[in-house]
From TrEMBL:
The keyword Signal applies. Pfam families: DUF4294. InterPro entries: DUF4294. Keywords: Signal. Residues 1-19 form the signal peptide. This is Uncharacterized protein DUF4294. It comes from the Bacteria. It comes from Zeaxanthinibacter enoshimensis.
Length: 228
């Protein structure tokens, strides 16, 4: 069971709880006492959050180290946009499920599309080509849908094709997916995200495309050893 209350451990030796438990030492009682949302209860153990231990970062060369930290800066920059896109998609699908009329559904979709364009457009214009491509990958990570299909869903096939053609002029594919188990750069992005989540530099959001990070790390560590 997951608790949202604050865990309080009492460490005052030699005191008593009440007249009925006068002889009970508080350090013994504290092992079982948990305060949850203003109330108290007894448990044998306290559930702790999972702690991920990361291996120290190692690089073959200064160039590799530089590329990693540049990738980290870009990933930190664009991840919030991918998270926002996922939030908006969840809201859209939830609302559409409540609308019975096709006319109302089309109208609401257009309103959301305009809102997303206004919300994103000015900021996205500031992104570099590589930042834009990382964003496309992270949108797929968070939504399970390519940016191309998102545009197609919100607008139509022709506009999605046009958007993808325009993006291709800048060497960006809106059809790009995210595969950290196959693409080393995608694994580095996942490594960056997991470290940022653990350090609370980025807000974790459940991903639609999820991988076991330990398995990924073991795989790429093995690949690195075989190359040496």
């Amino acid at each position: 069971m997951r608790y949202t209350g604050i865990f309080i451990l009492i460490m005052m030796l030699g005191s008593t709880v009440s007249a009925q438990v006068e002889e009970i030492e508080l350090d013994s009682l504290a092992e079982k006492l948990i305060i949850m949302e203003g109330d108290s209860t007894f448990r044998e153990s306290i559930a702790l959050e999972e702690v991920v231990v990361f291996s120290p970062l190692e690089f073959k060369s200064y160039e590799d180290k530089l590329r990693y930290y540049i990738l980290r800066r870009k990933t930190h920059k664009v991840y919030p946009y991918a998270k926002l896109a996922s939030d908006r998609l969840v809201e859209l699908n939830s609302r559409l499920g409540e609308l019975q009329s096709k006319r109302k559904r089309r109208r609401y979709t257009r309103e959301v599309q305009k809102f997303i364009e206004q919300e994103f457009s000015e900021e996205l214009k500031k992104l570099t080509r590589t930042e834009g491509q990382i964003l496309v990958k992270l949108i797929y990570r968070q939504t399970g849908i390519t940016a191309f299909d998102l545009v197609k869903e919100l607008r139509n096939g022709w506009r999605a094709f046009w958007y993808n053609t325009t993006a291709s002029l800048f060497d960006i594919s809106l059809k790009e997916e995210y595969h950290p188990d196959q693409v080393h750069e995608d694994y580095l992005i996942e490594d960056i995200l997991q470290r940022a989540f653990a350090a609370r530099h980025l807000e974790r959001q459940e991903a639609k495309v999820d991988y076991d990070f330990s398995t990924l790390t073991n795989k790429w560590t093995s690949v690195k050893k075989s190359e040496n």
